[in-house]
Predict the 3D structure of the following.
Amino acid sequence: MNCAIKLQKYSYATSIRSTPKSPQCPTCGAAFQTENSGAPGYLNEQKWRQMNQANVVKGLPEIEGTSESGSTEIPGLVNAKARKVSSNNANMLSDEEYKSIVSNIDDPELQAVFSGEKISGFVDPNDMQTGEPKVYSESEQGAKIDSFDTLLAARVRRRAEQGRDRIICQRCYSLKHYSRVDRPWKEDVVSDPRVLRFLQHKPSVMIVVVCDLFDIPGSLIPHLGDIIGARHPVVLVANKADLLPKDYHEQRLLMWFKRFAKSLELNIQAIHLVSALKNLGVRELAADLTTRRRPGQNIYMVGRANVGKSELINALLRISIGGSAHKVLASHVPGTTMGLSGIPLRRFVKALVPSSGAQSHDRQAYLYDTPGVFSNKSIISYLTNEELKLAVCRKRMKPFSFILGLDQSLMLGGLGRIDLVEGPSRIFVTIYSTIRPHFTRIKRADDLIQRMQAGEKTILQPPVGDAERLKWFPRQELALEHEFEGLHKQHATIDVVFAGIGWVAINGLFPRAKIQVFSPFGTGVCVRPPMMPYEFKQVSPHMSSQRKTPS
């Protein structure tokens, strides 16, 4: 299978609708369906029937589907007449056969019970008191059943209001409990930013643009203002601050980040650095949104895939009263959110609405989670579900600094490579990535790539898998050549960014150096001003997974 699968493109007409016509999965926003078991929104027959049963309780119409039985009866809510067994059932005894069997019972009391001599109705054990049990007539039986139906319906409504017993699709269940999907994740992603054009026609909304601090500028959508409209007020959120080293300088990072925000061409009102996973800066963000949002105004979360929009919504729910029961699905797999998923603002009590509850003008307001727009330039687009776990950073980084000599290569698995082809005898590199680096001579690096392309296992990971997977893995091609001057011994001069997997800061004092950077198909690489120029660490010794390639 060719790993360079062409990413599926969605248009506005087929992907995002502001008012969905079919029921949606509450965690990913995909429309429920029963036809394709591997696609988002799939429900088996039992879950489809259960969803319709819940709709009956809520007073909603049933949804047509492919359920074979077609039955949506809820035990305890059916009419008493429906519980009677049909008299024309072929397996039932005739009256003569029944009387013959009853007449052969030895116990006279049991014989009287089955013959109907002592019981003219049914006995409720809850109403038994001293003396004779109370016997109900048929009308009284119906009244008790109706009362039970009312109580059960109220219980189901209450549990639905509390977010319990939510029905989720099979894909969300696999991601939630097993952290995997049953088919290649690239088949479900949205890669065309024009799916967000519907926001241009919204009269009054607040936009929260979320990006990933670990992937700047790759997690920013260029010219986003032309797509969603430049008039909407925007709050820009840089997420995943918990992945950065502990000693990063927040104010310096904020000033550095504002340079890239200008390229979005948006009406930016505020910028926040947060960690949705660790709840860092989330309360400050919630307070700012509450202050800036006008009465009745909806909020839309917008951004690239895998930047943490869903996790940010969950963080806001965690600081709300009773909001945790309504969380959406967040996963390391890109493209987890498949449709426009709305949560009423009244679920965000204390976070986005007052503790006393939502006001009348906010009772119809929503916070919407939109599908992440995947970047075709991201290097992780060539990875399988298993390889994503190796490449995507999910815990705090510990940057290491190494020496890169002239005519040597720094390799980040099969995903990235930096060659020092001209310049000083050595430079210093600080690596911000979860992929173990490998240092070798340039000729040896070429040999490793050729062996990997031939299907031979090497020290380079990712990729991982059998020989067929290694053969189909995209070949590294020259992405850019860059000449620069080293400005300080221990301060970074430039960052070489590999979109989606991290970056390498280059340090040193020298008049001129020339590097060549390689990546799969030569995509997903850029050079930027250093994000953390003063985080240079002492040179680390080579570890076993970073050993020199033997001659």
Notes: The first helix runs from residue 12 to 15.
